[in-house]
Amino acid sequence: MHLKRWITGIVAVPIVYLLVAAGGPVFLLLIAAVSALTLWEYYQAVFPPPNKGLRQVMVVLGLCLAPVIVVAVQRWGLTPLPLILAVDLVVVAGLTLPIFKNDSQAPFLVAKQVLGLVYIPMLLSFLVLIRAGESGAQWIFLLLLVVAAGDTGAFYTGTYLGRHKLCPWVSPKKTIEGSLGGLTANVITGLVFKMILLPGLATLPVVAFALVIGIAGQVGDLFASEFKRSAGIKDSGRLLPGHGGFLDRLDALLFASPLAYLLKISIF
Q1: What is the domain range of residue 186?
Q2: Helices 136-161 and 246-266: angle between axes, nearest 10 degrees
Q3: In total, how many domains does the chain have?
Q4: Phi and psi dihedrals of 244, rounded to 5?
């Protein structure tokens, strides 16, 4: 398990580095593709196979809109997002109208489909905004490193030192010690790589940035754990050996990205 986890990371890191450094259409394509793959995993969990009829239409519509959302954000910022969501909601609600009287789950089907668009492509699209800004590549690298360090720090601290449960009703394996270890790793990594990537930044704001990102990442992790628990699955997929699926790997980043963008434009 641990070996697979590290091998996957070693293979993924140079690929991600090159794609982030390239920027432009290459980075946009990366985020659009990852959004679609992650959303597919989400829909597989909330609409278990066989996805026939209405559910299949919902999945296809969502997967088509995922790259549209990412491209729209890159081109026009956050402005078009409410319109895209509204169109999706109207279409999906209209499709479910014939079954509303006979299926008590119909409103939940609509909610699950729309939530997927908010949860994954919309949150990931903040990475596009960060990359498009000043020193965008450096900020993306800093964000990815801080999130990854927190995840790794929490995993190993919790594995070897964890004694007190953090949220046993959501994720029985997560511990307070693991959480604190993750936050410590967030701050240390933020400070170290700040000196390499963005040496002009003041130390105190970077510490605050790392802590906020770390807390957001842990909340995102717990949210994904609760989602998977309610869906009756352990991992969202198997595409990343040692990590599970894309949603398993990106759960912290999904919640951290919007806050990273807001902090970047408001504090730094």
Answers
A1: 134-268
A2: 130
A3: 2
A4: 100, -125
**pLDDT at residue 169 in the model:** 86
Q: Which residues contact 68 (CB under 8 A, 6 or more apart)?
A: 84
Amino acid at 23: G
Q: Which of 116, 132, 148 is the last residue of a domain?
A: 132
pTM of the predicted protein model? 0.93
Question: Has residue 7 been placed in a domain?
Answer: no
Report whether 109 contacts 58 (CB < 8 A).
yes
> 3-class SS at 217?
helix
d(Cα 9, Cα 28) in Å, to the nearest integer? 22
C-alpha span between 251 and 156 (Å, rounded):
18
Distance CA 97, CA 103 (A): 10
Tens of pLDDT, residue by residue over 101-130, are 677 777 888 999 999 999 999 999 999 999
Q: Which two tokens stand for residue 9?
A: 């990371």
Distance from C-alpha of 166 to C-alpha of 10, rounded to nearest angstrom:
30
pLDDT recorded at residue 172: 86
- Give the max Cα distance, the chain: 62
Specify if 152 maps to a domain: yes
> Are 161 and 192 within one domain?
yes
102 residue type, one letter: N
